[in-house]
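Quarterly update from the structural biology core.
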Amino acid sequence: MPLKLSAFPKCYIDQIASERSLSVFDWIEMARSLDADGLEMYDGFFTSLDPAYLDRVGEAIHNAGFAMPMLCCSPDFTNPDSDGRKRAVEREAEMIRVTRRLGGPGAVCRVLSGQRYPGLDRRQGLEWVAGCIEQVLPVAREHDIVLGLENHYKDSFWKYPEFAQKQDVFLELLNAIPERKHFGVQYDPSNALVAGDDPVALLRAVADRVVSMHASDRYLAEGASLEDLRQADGTLGYSPNLRHGVTGKGLNNYDAILGILAAHGYRGWVSIEDGMNGMEEMAESLAFLRRMSEKYFPGD
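Predicted structure, tokenized:
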């Protein structure tokens, strides 16, 4: 069965979610030119959570010929302030309901661990995050939505990198939550690279729990090193030394990655998260993934 491909407008995230110079409706119209089956959303794209507004977004996605397979959310479950963690839980629960409204049953709502605040104890952080995820799991079950824990680098609007960025912390957190029907892994190979881990080794460790995937690729600015990147803990968003390239032309081994997923019978969505230089790069990434899908996920 061929892979189902979706697109995420990484190149326009500031314009849509921060500057508001582009609307989510503008992006949906722009995406009509792409060879994608779905459009991944980000909670910052929405200017309202009013049901009528969300239904307009859903209708626009459907009328453009797409599904909405995943809503990217960035809960900060490591906030040292208990009220902040409570608000993060409430927000994630609300986003689960939005995911169901836009994506229907079985859609993925991304969940993160939170920021790696200076001085945060690992044991305390894991306890907070696992506890927060356990609080939102009943909402996911009620709405038949899957929580996808991403091995993340850093939300575009965060100051500090992901708490569970490193593989050992990520796996410890994952293993602390045994739920498999409504909770799994949102796998991103590029984020493993940035963390200093082997993306293929990480995938082998979590392949049976992958529920969705970001197909991205990364390369470094000339003269930069991954170690330089990992030291940039106090910068807002992504380091300027981290470049997004066309999927298949960067540091990731997609033959190994898709081979492992195919061997485990993966049937979820793959979403491109590249195209930082515009729509042409997004189209090129999608074309690469179509070819790889034919190779590893041939039709019946």
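The first helix runs from residue 13 to 19.
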